[in-house]
């Protein structure tokens, strides 16, 4: 999955960019206050994308 697709999917389901790390972007779900790291690769493996969505409590892409 492309990183840009995941980054568009997360805000559509109630998440926001929490802060930028050196190699990851941290996203936070505003409803549950859960935080997950999104790596800054152009391609993110589907398993990693599903894990990020599960960690944040949003539907899988």
From TrEMBL:
Annotated signal peptide: none
Stored Gene3D superfamilies: Hypothetical protein
Record keywords, A-Z: Endonuclease, Hydrolase, Nuclease, RNA-binding, Stress response, Toxin-antitoxin system
GO molecular function, one term: mRNA binding
Protein family (similarity comment): Belongs to the HicA mRNA interferase family.
Keyword Glycoprotein: no
Name listed for the protein in its UniProt record: Addiction module toxin, HicA family
Domain of life: Bacteria
Pfam families to which the protein is assigned, alphabetical: HicA_toxin
